[in-house]
């Protein structure tokens, strides 16, 4: 995965709570056997009507958010299915950062593994960002190393992140390679417990 | 020694590596694999020239995409490709596979327990959020993403931050006509879809202990719908008896030794949880969801709520959006909502006891005209057992379609799709927008409630039907 530290981008406000991964990427698009190419299907039924025309009233279809790279949403974002196609679609579409008051556990893990920075802020902070993001070109500036977010208007917030995940994201590490370095530990555990299924 | 929960006991037994400031590296005892979330993981292994560390701890099947009629004609070439890809991957990496023609084929969370692969105290993962099902046996089981699937294939471990523990205590007894499905839907309706986020849940209390193993699977299955990656129930004699003689369970003397270890895993008297939530079993009615997430539901005697009665603005907005999508008016009685489709199946409710309960309601009655009702057994084994006792006949005589095993209309990745605008009474686990087909409207219910909807044409309190029947 690609490392991430300082990042700034246009903010797209998706003012909905409990956004599930069935909405982020509907099931009919889960049949590919690659990791790439899912961006075109992101929020498919919210972005397009049954004839495949863009729904003008959906926030991501508005011109001012066309180049957005930071998605801000309501609580419990990414709930439901464990499909990693959801973060793959977000990343492929161009979102590198997702901000919400809370995330579903599996989705959060899936983001980290793909170099997407999922940031938890308070509901109040998120609501404030949603409001400011109505203005075209509204940007947030994120510094993972310092764990802070700012805008050009004096907004500043700090965020928490597990130090291990932070290290992974900052370095863009291949987690499997990290774990395989602990092969001796795994082997001695296996010796201790013995046989298979 | 301080009293411990089963969650803490299993966790501590599986730590491969612990280091300050890092999650724990946990050993994984069983990795279940299916066709949809695994191809990219195998591809990752190939790209990096890595092997599957423990093919002997890995077991694969096909369930999400498989047709439930005309088994050998897979119309969708992309679905077919996912299945052949799994076949090739299992062959290349030496993994046992129950493919579409295999007598053990079925929904991954149905066959794991059926084969005895699922056992108390195991850590079990699968690239599927309903892996929580296996928690019914006192296993620590949770859904993972594809990157984690690749990680487990390569290392047989996972980095996991120690979660908090949440006790869901269900006191008293369930009433007549109230099932395990109603129990878990009521818990989610009461506490919400993110009550369990960041927690592992343990279900306790008299109502839980009374449940059969299959009913416990229904409860644990939907832990993820309350936000918890894993939900489990301490093993007891029922757990042991269910596993006795199963193919992959220990046999003979080994089994008795294992049973002793399993029973010792149960949460100790006086162990503490980070949080406890309670619900009274006798207060639970048969449930029906009216909205677009599993917490948007009520007892059958209720009406569709008014969005204005919700305290938080975010809830008012999402309920209003949900009612719009579901094409429902506030104040409509749930019993007045007609249905077009009925689906009995899914990893939540497709086991033999589910089919028996639905058949009891269907017996001697007829599916109302204009309703498509399908019954999809969870596995080939369930299908055969059901046929052996004539359940298939009861269903087909009543006008239900009797299908082959798979995930089917729960997520409509195969041809079993609810058409746009149609309303479905479904025994599955998610009523998200478009889940059963673009524009479909899903209401989650128990198997008897689904059968009752099929034969009356609308949601009906199954307790009334049952009385007529007697």
From TrEMBL, chain A:
The record's EC number reads 4.2.1.33
GO CC annotations, alphabetized? 3-isopropylmalate dehydratase complex
What's a Pfam family in this record? Aconitase_C
Q: Which GO molecular function annotations are given, in alphabetical order?
A: 3-isopropylmalate dehydratase activity
Occurrences of domain Aconitase A/isopropylmalate dehydratase small subunit swivel (ranges): 1-123
Kindly give the CDD domains that the UniProt entry links to this protein: IPMI_Swivel (cd01577)
Q: Which GO terms describe its biological process?
A: L-leucine biosynthetic process
Q: Where are the transmembrane segments?
A: none
Query: What is said about its interaction partners and assembly?
Result: Heterodimer of LeuC and LeuD.
Role according to the record: Catalyzes the isomerization between 2-isopropylmalate and 3-isopropylmalate, via the formation of 2-isopropylmaleate.
Task: Give the family, as the similarity comment puts it.
Answer: Belongs to the LeuD family. LeuD type 1 subfamily.
| HAMAP family given in the database record | LeuD_type1 (MF_01031)
Protein's recorded name: 3-isopropylmalate dehydratase small subunit
Classification from the root reads: Bacteria, Bacillati, Bacillota, Bacilli, Bacillales
TrEMBL record, chain B:
Question: What Pfam families does the entry give?
Answer: Aconitase
Cofactor(s) this protein cannot do without: [4Fe-4S] cluster
So where does this one cross the membrane? Answer: none
Gene (UniProt)? leuC
E.C. number: 4.2.1.33
- Which InterPro entries is this protein grouped with? 3-IsopropMal_deHydase_lsu, Acnase/IPM_dHydase_lsu_aba_1/3, Acoase/IPM_deHydtase_lsu_aba, Aconitase_4Fe-4S_BS, Aconitase_4Fe-4S_dom, IPM_dehydratase_rel_enz, IPMI_cat
Instruction: Give the quaternary structure.
Output: Heterodimer of LeuC and LeuD.
Membership in a protein family: Belongs to the aconitase/IPM isomerase family. LeuC type 1 subfamily.
Enzymatic reactions: (2R,3S)-3-isopropylmalate = (2S)-2-isopropylmalate; citrate = D-threo-isocitrate
For this protein, the record's PANTHER family field holds: 3-ISOPROPYLMALATE DEHYDRATASE, HOMOACONITASE, MITOCHONDRIAL-RELATED
Kinase as UniProt keyword:
no
Pinpoint the Aconitase/3-isopropylmalate dehydratase large subunit alpha/beta/alpha domain residues. 8-457
Q: Under which pathway is this protein filed?
A: Amino-acid biosynthesis; L-leucine biosynthesis; L-leucine from 3-methyl-2-oxobutanoate: step 2/4
Keywords assigned: 4Fe-4S, Amino-acid biosynthesis, Branched-chain amino acid biosynthesis, Iron, Iron-sulfur, Leucine biosynthesis, Lyase, Metal-binding
What this chain does, per the record? Answer: Catalyzes the isomerization between 2-isopropylmalate and 3-isopropylmalate, via the formation of 2-isopropylmaleate.
UniProt keyword annotation of Metal-binding present: yes
Q: Which residues are recorded as binding [4Fe-4S] cluster?
A: 347, 407, 410
| Matching HAMAP family | LeuC_type1
Which protein, by its recorded name, is this? 3-isopropylmalate dehydratase large subunit
Organism from which the protein derives: Pseudobacillus wudalianchiensis
According to the record, cofactor stoichiometry and binding are noted as:
Binds 1 [4Fe-4S] cluster per subunit.
**GO BP terms:** L-leucine biosynthetic process
The Gene Ontology terms for molecular function here are: 3-isopropylmalate dehydratase activity; 4 iron, 4 sulfur cluster binding; aconitate hydratase activity; metal ion binding
């Amino acid at each position: 995965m690609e490392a991430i530290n300082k990042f700034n981008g246009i903010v797209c406000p998706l003012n909905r709570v409990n956004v599930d991964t069935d909405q982020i990427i509907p099931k009919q698009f889960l049949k590919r056997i690659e990791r790439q190419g899912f961006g075109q299907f992101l929020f498919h039924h919210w972005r397009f009507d049954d004839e495949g025309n863009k729904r003008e009233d959906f926030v991501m279809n508005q011109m001012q958010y066309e180049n957005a790279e930071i998605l801000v949403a309501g609580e419990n974002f990414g709930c439901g299915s464990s499909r990693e196609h959801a973060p793959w679609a977000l990343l492929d579409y161009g979102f590198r950062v997702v901000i919400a008051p809370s995330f579903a556990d599996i989705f959060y893990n899936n983001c980290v593994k793909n170099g997407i920075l999922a940031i938890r802020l308070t509901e109040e902070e998120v609501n404030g960002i949603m409001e400011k993001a109505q203005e075209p070109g509204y940007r947030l500036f994120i510094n993972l190393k310092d764990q802070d977010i700012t805008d050009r208007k004096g907004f500043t917030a700090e965020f928490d992140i597990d130090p291990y995940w932070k290290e992974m994201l900052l370095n863009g590490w291949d987690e499997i390679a990290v774990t395989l370095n602990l092969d001796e530990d795994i082997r001695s555990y296996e010796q201790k417990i013995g046989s298979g299924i | 020694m301080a009293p411990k929960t089963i969650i803490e006991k299993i966790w501590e037994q599986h730590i491969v590596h612990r280091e300050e400031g890092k999650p724990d590296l946990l050993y994984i005892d069983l990795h279940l694999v299916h066709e949809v979330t695994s191809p990219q993981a195998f591809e990752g292994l190939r790209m990096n020239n890595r092997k599957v560390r423990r093919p002997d701890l890995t077991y694969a099947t096909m369930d999400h995409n498989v047709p439930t009629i005309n088994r050998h004609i897979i119309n969708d070439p992309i679905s077919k490709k996912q299945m052949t890809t799994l076949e090739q991957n299992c062959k290349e990496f030496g993994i046992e596979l129950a493919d579409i023609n295999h007598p053990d084929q079925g929904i991954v969370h149905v066959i794991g327990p059926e084969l005895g692969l699922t056992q108390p105290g195991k850590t079990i993962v699968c690239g599927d959020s309903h892996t929580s099902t296996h928690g019914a046996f006192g296993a620590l089981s949770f859904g993972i993403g594809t990157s984690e699937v690749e990680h487990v294939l390569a290392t047989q471990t996972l980095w996991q931050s120690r979660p908090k523990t949440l006790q869901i205590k269900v006191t008293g007894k369930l009433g007549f006509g109230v099932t395990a499905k109603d129990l878990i839907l009521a818990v989610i309706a009461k506490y919400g879809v993110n009550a369990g986020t960041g927690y592992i849940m343990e279900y306790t209390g008299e109502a839980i202990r009374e449940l059969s193993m299959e009913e416990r699977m229904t409860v644990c299955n939907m832990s993820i719908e309350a936000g918890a990656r894993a939900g489990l129930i301490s093993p007891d004699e029922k757990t042991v008896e269910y596993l006795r003689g199963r193919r992959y369970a220990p046999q003979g003397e080994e089994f008795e030794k294992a049973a002793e270890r399993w029973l010792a895993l149960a949460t100790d008297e006086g162990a503490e949880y980070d949080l406890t939530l309670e619900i009274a079993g006798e207060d639970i009615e048969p449930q029906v969801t009216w909205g677009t997430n599993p917490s948007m539901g009520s007892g059958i005697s209720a009406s569709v709520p008014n969005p204005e009665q919700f305290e938080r603005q975010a809830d008012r907005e999402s309920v209003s959006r949900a009612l719009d999508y579901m094409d429902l008016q506030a104040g409509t009685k749930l019993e007045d909502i007609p249905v077009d489709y009925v689906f009995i199946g899914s990893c939540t409710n497709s086991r033999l006891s589910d089919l028996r309960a639905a058949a009891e309601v269907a017996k001697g009655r007829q599916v109302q005209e204009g309703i498509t009702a399908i019954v999809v057994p969870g596995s080939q084994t369930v299908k055969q057992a059901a046929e052996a006792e004539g359940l298939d006949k009861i269903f087909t005589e009543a006008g239900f379609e009797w299908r082959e095993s798979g995930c089917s209309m729960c997520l409509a990745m195969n041809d079993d799709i609810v058409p746009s605008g149609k309303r479905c009474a479904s025994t599955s686990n998610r009523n998200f927008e478009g889940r059963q087909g673009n524009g479909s409207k899903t209401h989650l219910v128990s198997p008897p409630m689904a059968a009752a909807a099929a034969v009356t044409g609308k949601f009906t309190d199954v307790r009334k039907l049952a009385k007529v029947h007697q």
